[in-house]
Amino acid sequence: MNSIRIKVPSDLIVAFYPHPEPYGDNYFVVDLENGMYTDVFEMENEFYTITNDTKLISYLNKKRKGLI
């Protein structure tokens, strides 16, 4: 599967950590409310991740549609 950019709603984020690689000030690693984690970047006060993790994509899509 190819990687996609997907929005990570800020209400799902429970903790922010500095990104281990020097990408800039708007890149973080975050813990999500379901125990998953991912790296995100901030763009115009919203958070996005670029991922091919099918479980993460499914979770974020379901939360966005109110299915979980």
Can you lay out the helices and strands and say which pair or pack?
Layout lengths: L3 E5 L4 E6 L8 E6 L4 E7 L2 E6 L2 H11 L4
Antiparallel strand pairs: 1-5, 2-3, 3-4, 4-5
Give an account of the 3D structure:
The structure is a single chain. With 68 residues, this protein is α+β, with helices and mostly antiparallel strands. It has one helix and five strands, in the order E-E-E-E-E-H. It has a five-stranded antiparallel β-sheet, covered by helices on one side. It has one helix at residues 54-64, and strands at 4-8, 13-18, 27-32, 37-43, 46-51. The radius of gyration is 12 Å and the shape is globular.
Summed up:
The chain has 1 helix and 5 strands, in the order βββββα. The protein is an alpha+beta fold. The protein has a 5-stranded antiparallel β-sheet with strand order 1-5-4-3-2, with helices on one face.
What attributes does this structure have?
single chain; 68 residues; alpha+beta; five-stranded antiparallel beta sheet
Q: Low-confidence parts, pLDDT < 50 over ≥5 residues? A: none
N-to-C span: 24 Å
Specify the helix fraction band: 10-25%
Q: Number of helix segments?
A: 1
What does the overall shape look like? globular
Quickly give the structural class.
Answer: alpha+beta
Tell me the β content.
Answer: 35-45%
SSE topology string: EEEEEH
Question: What's the overall average pLDDT, rounded?
Answer: 91
> If strands are numbered along the chain, what order do they take across the biggest sheet?
1-5-4-3-2
**Gyration radius from CA atoms, angstroms:** 12 Å
Number of domains: 1
Question: How many β-strand runs?
Answer: 5
How is the main sheet built? 5 strands, antiparallel
